[in-house]
Write a structure and sequence with these properties.
196 residues, 2% strand, mainly alpha, 8 helices, disordered N terminus, two-stranded antiparallel ribbon
């Protein structure tokens, strides 16, 4: 591939990253991201003490597409909306008390996980490399499970936290990581064709 084509491919991939947007477009991206996170929260399978939702899929995708900085800001803004009483959390839940209950550790883990995925994606673990993208999303899901279970262990004990806060979510985390990696690959498909 010529250096001109390489430069075009690199610029196209960066165009997907909203870090290059103006401040007004970044604000719009944050609003769109919080809406996407909210919609994903309504797709849930009720379980006790923690429901299964599409939130982690959305968190990882926002991190991958927005980058670690703006992704972290977007996820934190969405959590702030929930803490302030907007019905944006799992199943339309709202209120600061959710951050102190069984789901608190998972909620606080979301910005960390999204930022980790954003950083890994910027480091080349992107949609052009499906397996690396899958691993980035898997690492993000693992961060959610570890931090979420750590907080849950304080509330119900380590053994119960693993039984109820980790085991039911492992297969879903793997599937959502695969879905996230494939979605990212589809969104970066144009840059892959230029790369070839």
């Amino acid at each position: 591939m010529t250096s001109a084509k390489t430069a075009v491919a690199h610029d196209n991939l960066k165009a997907l990253n909203v870090q290059n947007f103006t401040l007004l477009w970044k604000v719009a991206a944050v609003l769109f991201g919080t809406l996407f996170l909210t919609v994903s929260s309504y797709v849930e399978v009720p379980m006790i003490p923690v429901p299964i939702t599409m939130q982690t899929f959305a968190v990882m995708l926002v991190g991958a597409l927005y980058g670690w900085r703006l992704g972290g800001v977007t996820i934190a803004a969405w959590l702030m909306e929930g803490a302030l009483g907007l019905p944006v959390l799992a199943g339309g839940a709202a209120g600061a008390h959710h951050f102190l209950g069984p789901t608190g550790g998972y909620l606080f883990a979301f910005p960390v996980a999204g930022m980790a995925v954003g950083w890994l994606t910027a480091s080349g673990w992107d949609g052009r490399r499906l397996w690396l993208s899958f691993l980035a999303m898997l690492i993000g899901n693992a961060i959610c499970l570890v931090l979420g279970a750590a907080w849950l262990a304080v509330l119900i004990g380590p053994e119960q936290a693993i039984i109820h806060g980790v085991v039911p979510f492992v297969i879903g985390g793997i599937l959502k990581s695969g879905l996230g990696a494939m979605t990212l690959r589809l969104l970066t498909r144009d840059t892959q064709q230029i790369d070839e």
